[in-house]
Amino acid sequence: MTPHVVLVHGIRTSATMWRAQQEHLGAIGVPVTAVDLPGHGSRMAEDFTLHEALHTIDAAVRTAAASAPVLLVGHSMGGLLSLAITGGEKPPPVAALIAASCTALPRGAALAAYRLIAGAMDALPDRGAWIAERILTATIPEDTRADFGMGGFALDAQDPALRSLSALDLESSVARIDVPLWFVNGQYDQLRVNEGLFRRLAPHAELIVVPRTTHLVTAMRPRVFNAVLDLALATMRVPEEMASRTRTRDTGEQSAGD
Q1: Is 14 within 8 Å of 46 (Cβ atoms)?
Q2: Which of 18-27 are b and which e, b meaning 16 or more Cβ less than 10 Å from the residue's Cβ?
Q3: Among 32, 80, 131, 210, whose Cα sits 20 to 30 Å from the Cα of 245?
Q4: Going residue by residue through the chain (258 aa), what tens digit of pLDDT does each one get?
Q5: N-to-C CA span, the chain
Q6: Taking each helix axis from N to C terminus, what angle separates 77-86 and 155-165, rounded to the nearest 10 degrees?
Q7: CA 37, CA 194: separation in Å to the nearest integer?
Q8: Residue ranges of the alpha helices (H) in the chain?
């Protein structure tokens, strides 16, 4: 059975950030759902709450899982939320998880510094739009550059979202995850700060570090990230193919016996 991929975007952006991945999955016949979290994209008018963000992911996974095994894929904040819900006490039926650009615990001095920088940019006359545009121009290929802002930038949701993430017990959640798991980081991603801890919490997980790449790995190296999706999908299909071969062999042996 072909898996269904559920994509969860990062902070400030929206489901549009996954355009390259959605096109790739569509081309190979894999169904895909890209959600908008509260306060982002098509839901920009809503307030961001941790409860509603987790509920959005939970609902998308359960709907997709009704007809296919689910590969959950999250980037940055979306990756943290995906780790939290997959390793929750009552998780939805996630069959495999890719957590990209999110091996950092959202608390303490690092979170405070990030919120301080975000607040300083937000206080600029254009709310930091000029700086953000220069960063995207310098780091993202032209064919994926517009994807991050196509659904609008969720500036008002940024600080409430950052503040709420500190409530997540990620260490407990990651340790409970028992499905195939991939951590994907850019070589120069600032959120690699707790990479070693996450690997210890989930020793079965695979770590993929993409060279010469920063935090926005899905857009900076879309072909590489699409290859990771292919890897995860192939891994999910292996048990089913083995079971199919076993059923075929058993049927053949039974026919021969008859």
Answers
A1: no
A2: bbbbbebbee
A3: 32
A4: 899 999 999 999 999 999 999 999 999 999 999 999 999 999 999 999 999 999 999 999 999 999 999 999 999 999 999 999 999 999 999 999 999 999 999 887 667 766 766 666 677 777 767 777 787 787 888 899 899 889 998 888 888 999 899 999 999 999 999 999 999 999 999 889 999 999 999 999 999 999 999 999 999 999 999 999 999 999 999 766 544 454 444 545 555 555
A5: 30
A6: 40
A7: 25
A8: 19-27, 50-65, 77-86, 108-122, 129-139, 142-145, 155-165, 170-176, 195-201, 217-220, 222-257
Nearest CA to 148 among 86, 230, 97, 214? 214
Cα–Cα distance, 143 to 158 (Å, whole number): 26
Q: Compute the distance between CA of residue 196 and CA of residue 59 in angstroms, rounded to an integer.
A: 31
Polymer length in residues for the chain: 258
Tokens of 91: 């998780």
Return the structure tokens found at 233. 């999908």
